[in-house]
Backbone:
């Protein structure tokens, strides 16, 4: 039986290649990539822009939508209320698996190229971004939308969410490009950049590209030290602050 194993595998492989060759070749409708797959955050980092570029088969009847999402996290949104002249937290809700960064770009207005069902299914646009409420939140269902709007508004104000859709521009026929901006306070981690091919109001193809945002240099070493040795980091920070204060006081006394 062993001597027949090699010929059987060879015949099976040739048969598989023949079946694949007999099928009509599927056209690659969308090809996209980033100008860089790594953003390094150093001590002088003030933000960065990346270029996403690619090609389409037929731009006359096809559109492109690009969605950039950051690492997911659990966030708690609190509502403050004045009680006896003091503002205290009264109600709160917690959302799970929330993207820390969210941005959308499109070759045409989203409402013109995608149906409501497709927008909702792909969570494209802030209005369609799904925020799942965690168990244990003391928020009534009718209040959930208000907390959701408050969280998104806070993210937009901090520059981590974009309430406007960035343009995707075509260059020389089938080529397209768009610029993705990342602010100075962008969180580190793995990001997902997804380019959707849109045709007849629906998503017909998609390509996902990973992006890493990481701290490098002294800032990264300090961050790792603070995370792994939090108690020691706090003691060192207090000692450095005391020494800085003592040194400044000594200098001013000498002046």
Residues:
């Amino acid at each position: 039986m062993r001597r027949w194993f090699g010929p059987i595998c060879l015949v099976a492989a040739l048969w598989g290649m023949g079946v694949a060759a007999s099928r009509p070749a599927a056209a690659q409708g969308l090809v996209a990539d980033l100008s860089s797959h790594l953003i390094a955050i150093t001590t002088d980092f003030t933000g960065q822009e990346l270029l996403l570029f690619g090609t389409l088969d037929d731009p006359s009847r096809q559109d492109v939508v690009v969605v950039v999402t950051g690492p997911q996290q659990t966030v708690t949104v609190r509502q403050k209320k004045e009680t006896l002249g003091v503002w205290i937290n009264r109600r709160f809700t917690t959302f799970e698996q929330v993207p820390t960064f969210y941005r959308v770009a499109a070759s045409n207005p989203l409402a013109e190229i995608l149906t409501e069902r497709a927008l909702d299914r792909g969570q494209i646009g802030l209005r369609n971004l799904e925020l799942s409420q965690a168990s244990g939140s003391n928020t009534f269902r009718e209040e959930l939308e208000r907390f959701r709007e408050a969280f998104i508004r806070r993210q937009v104000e901090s520059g981590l969410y974009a309430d406007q859709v960035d343009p995707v521009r075509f260059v020389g026929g089938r080529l397209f490009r768009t610029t993705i901006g990342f602010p100075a306070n962008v969180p580190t981690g793995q990001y997902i950049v997804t380019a959707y091919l849109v045709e007849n109001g629906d998503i017909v193809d998609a390509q996902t590209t990973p992006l890493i945002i990481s701290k490098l240099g002294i800032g990264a070493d300090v961050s790792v030290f603070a995370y792994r040795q939090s108690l020691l980091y706090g003691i060192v920070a207090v000692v450095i602050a005391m020494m800085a204060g003592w040194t400044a006081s000594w200098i001013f006394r000498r002046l």
User: Anything to note?
Assistant: The first strand starts at residue 30 and ends at 34. The domain at 30-239 is CATH 2.60.40.1930 (Immunoglobulin-like). Confidence is low (pLDDT under 50) at residues 1-27.
